[in-house]
Every structure is written in structure tokens, then in C-alpha cells.
Amino acid sequence: MANRSDTDNYLSLFLNSTPLMDVRAPVEFAKGSVPGAVNMPLMNDEERHRVGICYKEKGQDEAVRLGHQLVAGDIKAQRIEAWKRFAAHHPEGYLFCFRGGLRSQLTQQWIQHAGIDYPLVEGGYKALRRFLIDSLDNLVESGDFRIISGRTGTGKTRVLQQLPNPVDLEGLANHRGSSFGRQVTPQPSQIDFENRLTVAMLKAHHVKEGPVYLEDESRLVGRCAMPDALKERMTHAPLLILERSLEDRTRIIREDYVEAMSADYMSRDGAEAGWLNFRDYLLGALARISKRLGGDRYGQLLGFMEQALAQQERNGDVLAHDAWIQPLLQDYYDPMYDYQLNQKQGRVLVRGGPEAIVGWANTNVCA
């Protein structure tokens, strides 16, 4: 492996999706890291905790001595082997700790003693995070945005992916943005969401040209909060209004929230447990909006949903779900969307079906 220098070219790291080895403890990694980073800690949480106490009580030298005692012998050898495998699989990568200090330097030295020169990110995670925060502020302030909007079930995310320069907020948040929107895998932490968003915006700005297309979202995408400045810019950005028939929208909702979700749950948990977890997901999503639906309407939709679930369980037929999907769209989501659309201040550039939206965007790349 050719020698490479340590780097502070954070933009290049993100634009090139450079493999990164995060040697911080798992508890630090869980709070937030950068997209694509793999956690391969120098110390586990318990070891870090003990070293931290020693540092506060006895100072750095004693803390370093304790760290060497805790990470020694077979434990040290196993971690070095893991780092060596990462370096072999990702010769173009880098490693980092929190500030680019003792932990990353020690990791680098141990790998070097094992025969591999592997560079580190100067300033560590703190510098990477600062770069991303500043970059997002600049991108939001100077960016040119277009918003794809439309009633629930029009398939906005599907169409967004066909536009020239999309940033998929729901994909970054791993949530579809409604009461029914959670996925079988967890959402990222707020910091991870912000970091993912910034990297996606950096790539949209530097790799492609023309306006950035975003899907119309509320401030919260599941539990992930949109940056206030971006949400404000989106409120005033030009709109592309996606329109579909009620029948098409019902089908899309059924495909996404019934067929795909039941398959995902059963793939993850097995047929029996997966079915029960899917059933709980669907009933729970409806229950979360029960107060806004009102008692009578909630009770009626719940009855339709339970009948549809029973039929799906008996013979796999999912069409009975249309009985609750259609009235939920017409009586709950549509009035809410129409009200929200009236509050938006951006001009409407185009209205129509998927072909009209995609066609307009592709012929107005720099509009």
C-alpha cells in the first residue's frame, strides 16, 4: 500500500464517498457519525469510561497507561487485525477519532507497526461535523430548490427519483413522513440525518448541475427534524404539483404500506412473527391519528382495516384494504393537503401526472 498523507480535505472525502474508519467508542458512534463510516473502536464503551474517570482523577499520563493496560494482549491483537482487514479492503480510506488526537494517532501507530501505513483525518469527527454544519448553511442559503408536491399517494418519491438532481429527504430519514411512514429498520439519529442530508446536498451541488429537487415535507420526517433554514427555503420554492386519480393513489398506498411492508416484516422476522408485527404496525399507525379522525370515523376505518387484515391473513388477498385506504385519503389526508398547499408561497411551475412532471424537469434542467 503506497504511503498517503493525512488529510483535511473534507469536501473530497464526502464527494468521493471515501471509506472511513471511526475508532471512537460505540456510544459516541451511536450519537452520530458521517455517512459511510464504519465503527471499529480503539476502546469499547466500558474501557473508554474507565479511562475517562482516570483522566479526570489522575491526569493524561495515567489515563494513557490505563488504556494500554486495558487494550493489550489478545484484545489488542484482535482490534489490529480488524483494522488491517479494513485497510486491505479500503486502501483509499482514512481513519478518525473525535479530534484527530491521541486515539487516531495510536491506532495509526499500531497499524503501522503491523506493516500498514494508513492515514488519518486531521481534526477528526469534530472537524468533519463542523465542515458539514457550515456547508449546509451555505448550501441552503445559496441553493436553487424545486419542490415536488402532491396529495398523499401520488407517488412523489417514485417520481422524485426520476428528476435530474434529487435529494430524497424520506430516504435520508428512513421514514415516509406520515403516521404510516416508519420502516422496519430504525431511523438515523438527528445528527446522522443532518450529516446525510448535507453530504447529499454537497453531491447535488458539486457533481450535478441545475436546481435541487426535494419532496414536500413537514418539519418532522418521522422523528428527524428538518433544519429550520431549509424548511423556510422550501416554503418559498417553486412547486411541481403531481396529480393522480384516486384509484391510482389507492393502489400506490396499498403497494407501499400493505404489500411492501408486510413483505419487509416477514423477511425480517419470519412468517408468523413478521405477520403479527406488520399487523401491529398498521393498527398502530391508524391509532396514532385516532383523535384527529374522531371516534366514529376511526371506529369505521378500524373495522375496515381489521376485516382487510383478516382476509389478507386467510388467502393473501390485499384488495380489501382499499376499503379503509380510500376514505382515509379523501376525508383525512386530502383536506389537510389542500389546506397546506394554500399556505405555500412558491409559484406552481407545472401540474400533471408523472410523465408531465419528469418531462418538464428534464427540459428545464437549468431553469
TrEMBL record:
Write down the Pfam families for this protein, in alphabetical order. AAA_SelU (PF26341), Rhodanese (PF00581)
Q: Which reaction does it catalyse?
A: 5-methylaminomethyl-2-(Se-phospho)selenouridine(34) in tRNA + H2O = 5-methylaminomethyl-2-selenouridine(34) in tRNA + phosphate; 5-methylaminomethyl-2-thiouridine(34) in tRNA + selenophosphate + (2E)-geranyl diphosphate + H2O + H(+) = 5-methylaminomethyl-2-selenouridine(34) in tRNA + (2E)-thiogeraniol + phosphate + diphosphate; 5-methylaminomethyl-2-thiouridine(34) in tRNA + (2E)-geranyl diphosphate = 5-methylaminomethyl-S-(2E)-geranyl-thiouridine(34) in tRNA + diphosphate; 5-methylaminomethyl-S-(2E)-geranyl-thiouridine(34) in tRNA + selenophosphate + H(+) = 5-methylaminomethyl-2-(Se-phospho)selenouridine(34) in tRNA + (2E)-thiogeraniol
For biological process, the GO terms are: tRNA wobble uridine modification
Give the coiled coil ranges.
none
CDD domains membership: RHOD_YbbB
What InterPro entries does UniProt report for this protein, alphabetically? AAA_SelU, Rhodanese-like_dom, Rhodanese-like_dom_sf, SelU
Q: What GO molecular-function term can you cite, just one?
A: tRNA 2-selenouridine synthase activity
Keyword terms, alphabetized? Selenium, Transferase
- Rhodanese domain mapped to chain residues: 14-137
Q: EC number(s) in its UniProt entry?
A: 2.9.1.3
Give the source's domain of life in one word: Bacteria
Catalytic center residues: 97 (s-selanylcysteine intermediate)
Entry function: Involved in the post-transcriptional modification of the uridine at the wobble position (U34) of tRNA(Lys), tRNA(Glu) and tRNA(Gln). Catalyzes the conversion of 2-thiouridine (S2U-RNA) to 2-selenouridine (Se2U-RNA). Acts in a two-step process involving geranylation of 2-thiouridine (S2U) to S-geranyl-2-thiouridine (geS2U) and subsequent selenation of the latter derivative to 2-selenouridine (Se2U) in the tRNA chain.
Subunit and interaction comment: Monomer.
Sequence similarity: Belongs to the SelU family.
Protein's name according to its UniProt entry: tRNA 2-selenouridine synthase
Originating organism: Marinobacter antarcticus
Q: What is the lineage of its organism?
A: Bacteria, Pseudomonadati, Pseudomonadota, Gammaproteobacteria, Pseudomonadales
